Structure formats: structure tokens, C-alpha cells
């Protein structure tokens, strides 16, 4: 099996952009509830990046915060009799094999072609397709350098936390001056990725703009964007959801909204057409 191909039998649930952390207690509780539901309905669960709000290294599991203990125990309970897969995002690109092993999960590469009952689907976190966001692509270029990650991970956890907080603050400031367009995926990059892997469906997260899109001019390619999770807002509106793959049907589920379901038999299998 190629490292970027994953054959999944049975139902698949995919979620991303949970942003779990000490400042998001209600979102953590919603995720624990979601995992409980997934136990009874999904054979496979893929968490597609930005699982954590800022991951500063696997070694934090040596003395985990209570919220992380709760999440890790729930993930281990799920993976004790289901298949669990973790993909890294731009907030948790430092997730490693140690944590994956800790929760009995498989760590996925930055993109993977899922071979599912609904056909072939290209999946990634999605940040790598935001090519117009040059500041971000520069950031991504440097923080993916193994030597820089090694240098960072050699720092005390307290210093790593301060650096992460600084990066988060820098990011929040930077986004204030960016147009929403450049913080979305570049359609041409999506088409190129789908054609490179002979697939007609992509699932990604990162943009926090959940929807099902045709690509302009390429109506045979469909892009599914995963919901971001946020249950902390004072107005009580909870953001969140997931994509399910059952039989030949893909469904986008968002809290408080109608499910968007599509029978993928028509277009998804480029290889079989
Ligand atoms: O994350 P979000 O949603 O706010 O915005 C993202 C892009 N920003 C990022 C930065 C992350 O939020 C930072 C997470 C910290 C993780 C912990 C590890 C920290 C250091 C590891 C060193 C090996 O991803 C944002 C995009 C937006 O998505 C939409 O796509 O626009 O990109 C930017 O804001 C680009 C900025 O230039 C990022 C500036 C970060 C400051 C870097 C200083 C710290 C580097 C430390 C090096 C040792
Ligand atoms: Mn992201």
C-alpha cells in the first residue's frame, strides 16, 4: 500500500478543525459526545488536522492537562474497537508518532487518497492549497523544516508554550489585514491535486467555510469542506460537524443545519469511467 493511499471498509466519519484546548472546554465536551456517537455509527474516524488549538509537542502527554487526558482517553476508547486516523494541520503539525501510538491511532501524511465505498477521495487539511496567502506559505515552509522543529522541541515546554502563544497572536494580527479570498484554497491547486491523483472528490478543512463546491469550469470535481468547531460563543450558537461516508453517499453534517448528502456514484470514480 502506498503511504498516501488508504483503503477503508465500512462507514467513515471525517472531522477537522476541532481546535481542542484548555480555552475551549465546551468544544472539548462536544467532541467527547461526538466520539461517543461515532463509537456506534462509524467503523473508521479520520481527524483531519487542527485537532488541537496549538500542539507544542508529544512530550506534553507525560504530564497532560486534564482536558488532554479526557480527550486522549476518549480517543483510546474509540480506537480500542474502531480505526482511528490523525492528520496534521497548521496548528498541530508537531503531532507525532508518540501521540498517535498513545491513542492507538495511525498518523496520516499531509494528503491521502481514501479508497472508500463511495469511491476515491483525496483528503488533506487544506492549508497547503491556500497558495495566495504568501505570508502563511512562508510560515509553513519554515515550520515544516525538521531542524527547526528539532530546535523548538528541544526547548522547555514553558518556552514552547510562549512561542506558540506568540505565533497564535501573530496569526490573529496577520489575518486582520488579509482579504478573505487569499485565505481560501486556490481552485487551480485543487484541480491540479485531483487530476494528479485521478480523483474527482476532495475533502479538506482549514478554511472554516463548510460547504460542498463544484470547481468553476470543472464540474466533474467536487470539493467538500469540513466544518470548524466552536462551542464557546456566548450566544450559544455551536459550530461543528463532520462528513460521513456510508455506501455511495457522502453527507456534510453541520450542527443546527440540514444535512447535505450526495450520491457519489455519478462522478467520483474517475478510474472506473
Ligand atoms: O491558525 P490560524 O487559523 O490563526 O491562521 C492560519 C495561519 N496561521 C498559522 C499560524 C498558527 O496559528 C500558529 C500555531 C502555533 C503552533 C505551535 C508551534 C509554534 C512554532 C513551531 C516552530 C517549529 O497557521 C494564517 C493564515 C490562516 O490560517 C488562513 O489560512 O492566514 O497564516 C498567518 O497568519 C501567517 C503568519 O505570518 C503567521 C505568523 C506566525 C508567527 C511566527 C513566529 C513564531 C515562530 C517560532 C519559530 C521557533
Ligand atoms: Mn487549519
C-alpha termini separation: 23 Å
Number of domains: 1
H/E series: EEHEHEHEEEHHHHEEEEEE
CATH class equals: Alpha Beta
CATH fourth-tier homologous superfamily: Metallo-dependent phosphatases
Q: Which compounds are bound in this model? A: ligand LP5, manganese (II) ion
CATH topology: Purple Acid Phosphatase, chain A, domain 2
Rg from Cα: 18 Å
The low-confidence runs, each spanning 5 or more residues with pLDDT under 50, are none
Determine the fraction of residues in helical runs and give it as a percent range. Answer: 25-40%
The main sheet comes to: 7 strands, mixed
Structural class, by secondary structure, is alpha/beta
Number of strands: 13
Mean pLDDT: 94
List the total number of helices: 7
What amount of the residues lies in strands?
15-25%
Q: Going across the major beta sheet, what is the strand order?
A: 5-4-3-2-11-12-13
Explain how this protein is built:
With 273 residues, the chain is an alpha/beta fold. The chain has a single domain (5-272), classed as Metallo-dependent phosphatases (Purple Acid Phosphatase, chain A, domain 2). The chain is 31% helix and 23% strand. The chain has helices at 25-41, 66-79, 97-102, 134-143, 146-153, 157-176, 187-196, and strands at residues 5-7, 12-15, 44-48, 83-87, 106-107, 111-116, 119-124, 201-204, 211-215, 218-225, 241-246, 249-254, 260-263. Strands 5-4-3-2-11-12-13 form a seven-stranded mixed beta sheet. A hairpin with a 2-residue loop joins strand 11 and strand 12. The longest helix has 20 residues, at 157-176. Ligand LP5 binds at residues 54, 56, 90-91, 127, 130, 133, 135-136, 139, 143, 148-149, 152, 163-164, 166-168, 170-172, 174-175, 178, 183. It is a peripheral membrane protein. Keywords: Cell inner membrane, Cell membrane, Hydrolase, Lipid A biosynthesis, Lipid biosynthesis, Lipid metabolism, Manganese, Membrane, Metal-binding. Pathway: Glycolipid biosynthesis; lipid IV(A) biosynthesis; lipid IV(A) from (3R)-3-hydroxytetradecanoyl-[acyl-carrier-protein] and UDP-N-acetyl-alpha-D-glucosamine: step 4/6.
Amino acid at each position: 500500500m502506498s503511504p498516501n493511499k488508504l483503503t477503508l471498509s465500512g462507514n467513515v466519519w471525517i472531522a477537522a478543525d476541532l481546535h481542542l484546548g484548555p480555552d475551549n472546554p465546551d468544544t472539548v465536551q462536544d467532541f467527547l459526545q461526538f466520539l461517543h456517537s461515532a463509537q456506534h455509527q462509524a467503523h473508521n474516524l479520520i481527524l483531519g488536522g487542527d485537532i488541537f488549538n496549538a500542539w507544542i509537542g508529544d512530550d506534553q502527554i507525560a504530564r497532560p492537562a486534564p482536558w488532554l487526558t479526557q480527550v486522549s482517553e476518549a480517543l483510546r476508547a474509540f480506537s480500542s474497537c474502531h480505526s482511528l486516523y490523525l492528520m496534521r494541520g497548521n496548528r498541530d503539525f508537531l503531532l507525532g508518532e508518540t501521540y498517535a501510538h498513545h491513542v492507538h491511532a495511525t498518523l496520516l501524511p499531509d494528503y491521502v487518497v481514501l479508497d472508500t465505498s463511495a469511491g476515491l477521495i483525496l483528503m488533506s487539511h487544506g492549508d497547503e492549497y491556500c497558495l495566495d496567502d504568501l505570508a502563511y506559505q512562508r510560515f509553513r515552509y519554515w515550520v515544516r523544516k525538521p531542524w527547526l522543529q528539532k530546535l523548538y522541541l528541544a526547548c522547555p515546554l514553558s518556552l514552547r508554550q510562549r512561542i506558540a502563544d506568540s505565533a497564535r497572536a501573530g496569526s490573529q494580527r496577520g489575518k486582520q489585514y488579509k482579504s478573505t479570498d487569499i485565505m481560501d484554497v486556490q481552485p487551480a491547486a485543487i484541480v491540479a491535486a485531483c487530476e494528479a491523483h485521478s480523483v474527482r472528490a476532495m475533502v479538506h478543512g482549514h478554511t472554516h467555510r463548510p460547504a460542498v463546491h463544484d470547481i468553476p469550469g470543472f464540474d466533474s470535481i467536487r470539493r467538500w469542506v469540513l466544518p470548524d468547531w466552536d462551542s464557546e460563543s456566548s450566544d450559544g450558537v455551536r459550530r461543528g460537524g463532520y462528513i460521513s461516508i456510508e455506501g455511495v453517499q457522502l453527507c456534510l453534517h453541520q450542527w443546527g443545519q440540514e444535512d447535505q448528502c450526495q450520491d457519489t456514484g455519478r462522478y467520483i470514480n474517475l478510474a472506473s469511467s
